[in-house]
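not sure who needs this but someone in the group chat was asking about 3-methyl-2-oxobutanoate hydroxymethyltransferase from Dimargaris verticillata so here u go. i didnt clean anything up, its just raw.
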Amino acid sequence: MGAQRRTTAPPTGVRAYSSRPLDAPKPTPERKKVTVNTIHRLHQKRTPITVVTAYDYPTGMIVDRGQCDICLVGDSFAMVALGYESTASLTMDEMLHHCRATARGCKKAFKVADLPMGTYQLSPEQALASSFRVIKEGHMEAVKMEGGAEIAESVRRITQAGIPVMGHIGLTPQHEHALGGFRVQGKTAKKAEKVLTDALALQAAGCFSLVIECVPGPVAAKITSLLNIPTIGIGAGPDTSGQVLVIQDMLGVFDRFMPKFCKIYGQFGTAMSQAIHQYVTEVQDRTFPDPQQHTYPMASEEELEEWLRVIEHYKEK
């Protein structure tokens, strides 16, 4: 007869099929939903605002569980998730697909999404139509737009329609070719003044906050002090109203050049590669799956014996 085999059903919560959907994220009970008003209150209290990017259901959940104030579906996922050379290749349909996935995982943080290049530059009407799509189809709560005074009219049109807009000045990746590449902006007095005038124009147009990217610390600090809305820095020093990082960069997912401003908080790329290598090794040496821990039994010992009788006439290879 052999050793007695386990006959009970798998415990509740064990996934009997590897593609079964995960349970819905459980919001932290004590944490209230972050809104645009929450962001304003944090700014008034001089509490630093935290922003991290997310691009799908699991990263949306992770950002939420990490207690971030703002979850940004940035067009940077074109490079870090889709493998494009730049953000310019990203389409609106791709953005909406990732927005919806992120929104399903992120329930508490304020959700903001980039308008992809080419979806808002033609006219204020185009910008408004694109923004409506991001809110209605992408389930986001605000949009982010790159540019300065030249997009102020579009920002005004969108905010008048009731959609919050986060601006983005300094280094604007969608304009990398016009800027001559990914370069620090505002390093001279004249260029720094241009960043300031862009910030003031976007504030006047109705932006609820501004991302300031790759600008010297003293310039970002002064701009922050002159504005009535919060600034979110990335490569702009410690004196902005908050900070933003790309999740793959901060978690060390990629073994590649990192900008000076990025701090790596983990080595997840190495850890994931090591885990997969261990899996490959265990499959090859047949230590995984374990017959007791990872294998389902027959309904009973009698059913196993019946099965063996049923297949007696089959020949093994």
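also The chain has twelve helices and eight strands. if thats useful
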